Structure formats: C-alpha cells, structure tokens
C-alpha cells in the first residue's frame, strides 16, 4: 500500500502537487489524523468478506484505510478535480473503485448490485460533507439499502440530535427517524484541528447500526413520520395543540380523547414522547381516518 495520506505533511504535498484548491461549498475538510481514522475504521467492523461504501473520498485518506480493512471499497466523489488524484493515490490498492457522481442523485440500489455482489455485508463509512449530512443519511435509510452499519463523521450537534433520548432539547424528528431504523452510538468527538482546512464547528463520529426491522411496528410509515413532524412543529406547544393543527380544529375534542385513551397526557410536549408512543398515536389516528 502507498504512504499514509492522512498526515499534515503528505496532505499538503498532494494538494500542492496537483494545485488543488478547496471548495467550501462542497464541504471539503480533509482528515489529517491517524487516530481518528483508526477509530472510524474499527467502529465499522470490517473484514475481507465485507464491503464499504465511502461518500466523498476527497484525496483518499479514509479510502486507503478502508481498502486495507475491507474486501471491496467503492467511493463516490462529486468533485471531478479529485478523480485523477484518487486514481494516483489509490493506484496500489486492490478491490477499490472510485465513482464520479453526486451520491444524492445516484441509483444506490443499482450501485449495490454492481459493486457489492460478492461481499457478505456492506457498511457506509465516511467523513461526510456537512452541508448535506441529513439528506444523505435519510436517503441511505429510506431506500432501505441492505446496510450493516453507517459510521460517519458529522457535525457534533447533529450527532447529538441523532442519538438523543426523549425529554431533552436535542430530541426531535431527526432523532425519531434515525432511531426508527438504527441503534445510534456516538463513537468519539473530534476537534476541528484534525482537518485541513479546519471547519468552524466541532465534529463527532457516529455509528448507526441498522435494525433488522424498524424499532416500532407502524401500519403506515409515511403517516407515522408526518405525525412525528407535526408533533414537533412548534416545540413550545403542547402535543394537543400541534396535532390539532394537523387534524383540524373541529377534531380537537376527539383528538384529546384519543390521546387520553392511549395513556398520553395531551399537555405533554412532542419532545417527551417515545417512538412507541408516536406509533400508538399514528395507529389511532389512522383508525379514526385522520
Ligand atoms: N474523505 C475525505 C477525508 O476524510 O479527508 C474527504 C471528506 S470531505 C469532509 C467531504 C467530501 O465529500 C469532499 O471530497 C467533497 O468533494 C465530497 N462531496 C461533497 N458533496 C458530495 C456529494 N453530493 N456526493 C459525493 N461526494 C460529495
């Protein structure tokens, strides 16, 4: 394998050699720390029978490590200026494919069929571009791709929201969506000094382990998520008020009764409700035809 990319010296050399200039609009902050890479790769539980999908390989700091840990690595990079650099940096790595494209526009089912037919499981491992973290993760989850783990570096506050339990101010519709599909765990927090250039926010590595089936059984996922969104629409309002706005004023009384019959106090706030409680509400609302 080639020399480690993720050191300040080597990263600066590569950038100078190719005359690369960072695009802030693409969330380009390259990792230059070996320990953080060790933590990310270890959390992904890879071996030679497993595949890794990397989103945004940059100049290949993580890609190189994944190539050593997994049986197949596929990396999707949007910036065409990085494609020749990646080709050079990864020249000695076997079973590694770089695809030029926007992960949000790619047909990932097809990509999985083409790239990962021969592995026993696939995980997403990435240092994500922060401007599109949530759309990327929601795409991965909603398309129900056959994933084992998603281990990603993201903005620290977003990681905290994903892993938040009911009752605190971090808990919201993102927490519910992530925890519906996955078991989240914050692996480590990361100072901004381990990137070139340094981002102006703190970061964290989060591991999302995909559940075999969703955390709660709901008759209609779309409806469940709409109820969750509505419950958090105005965070300082009670559940009864937020849900009345969703079902219509004329149903206020019936809604209150429905909540009470589900053992849910209508004056609670959305942020105190568990996934099980949201699922109960969604089911009852559907039964009432709301
Ligand atoms: N993996 C590298 C590292 O850790 O040093 C680079 C990480 S950097 C935070 C994010 C990378 O994602 C950049 O290389 C950027 O060009 C790429 N990127 C941004 N938006 C993307 C998209 N929609 N699809 C694929 N790659 C994207």
Q: Which strand order do you get reading across the main beta sheet? A: 4-3-2-5-6-9-7
Q: Tell me the quaternary state.
A: single chain
Question: Low-confidence spans: pLDDT under 50, at least 5 residues?
Answer: none
Instruction: Kindly provide the radius of gyration, computed on alpha-carbon positions and rounded to a whole number of angstroms.
Output: 22 Å
Strand count, sense and barrel status of the largest sheet are: 7 strands, mixed
Total helical elements: 12
Query: What's the total number of strands?
Result: 9
Strand content: 15-25%
* Secondary-structure element string: HEHEHEHEHEHEHHEEEHHHH
Give the averaged pLDDT, no decimals: 97
Overall helicity: 25-40%
Distance between the termini: 59 Å
**Coarse morphology:** elongated
Classification by helices and strands = alpha/beta
Ligand identities: S-adenosylmethionine
Function: Specifically dimethylates two adjacent adenosines (A1518 and A1519) in the loop of a conserved hairpin near the 3'-end of 16S rRNA in the 30S particle. May play a critical role in biogenesis of 30S subunits.
GO molecular function: 16S rRNA (adenine(1518)-N(6)/adenine(1519)-N(6))-dimethyltransferase activity; RNA binding
InterPro entries: KsgA/Erm, rRNA_Ade_diMease-like_C, rRNA_Ade_Mease_Trfase_CS, rRNA_Ade_methylase_Trfase_N, rRNA_adenine_dimethylase, SAM-dependent_MTases_sf
Domain Ribosomal RNA adenine methylase transferase N-terminal: 36-212
